[in-house]
């Protein structure tokens, strides 16, 4: 996890080293009750949807992309400073 405070915003980045998320599923990971991949992992599919809602309420952004340094994904959230 990496945090970055820039002049006008705060960013938080989390990188995973797993099988990653295919491009076709990336738009779905921030929707409520969506679960991608291993169904053996517990969860309701709400976590990233909550992150997106909080970011939206603060005029922020969230995203996911491929991890350029390993297999897996990079999730990020950026919100403007008050």
From TrEMBL:
Q: Which GO terms describe its biological process?
A: phosphorelay signal transduction system
- Annotated membrane-spanning segments are none
Q: Which domain of life is it from?
A: Archaea
Q: Determine if Kinase is one of this entry's keywords.
A: yes
Q: List its EC numbers.
A: 2.7.13.3
**Class in the EC hierarchy, top level:** transferase
Q: Sorted alphabetically, which InterPro entries does this protein's record hold?
A: HATPase_C_sf, HATPase_dom, His_kinase_dom, Sensor_HK_Regulatory, Sig_transdc_His_kin-like_C
Q: What are the Histidine kinase domain coordinates in residue numbering?
A: 14-82
A GO molecular function annotation here is:
protein histidine kinase activity
* Keywords noted in UniProt: Kinase, Transferase, Two-component regulatory system
The catalysed reaction is:
ATP + protein L-histidine = ADP + protein N-phospho-L-histidine
Q: What start-end ranges are recorded for coiled-coil regions in this protein?
A: none
The name on file for this protein is histidine kinase
């Amino acid at each position: 996890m990496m945090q970055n405070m820039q002049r006008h915003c705060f960013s938080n980045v989390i990188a995973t080293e797993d099988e990653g998320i295919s491009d076709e599923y990336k738009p779905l990971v921030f929707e409520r009750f969506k679960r991608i991949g291993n169904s053996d992992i517990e969860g309701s599919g709400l976590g990233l949807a909550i992150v997106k809602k909080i970011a939206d309420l603060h005029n922020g952004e969230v995203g996911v992309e491929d991890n350029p340094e390993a297999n897996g994904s990079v999730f990020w959230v950026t919100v403007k400073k008050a």
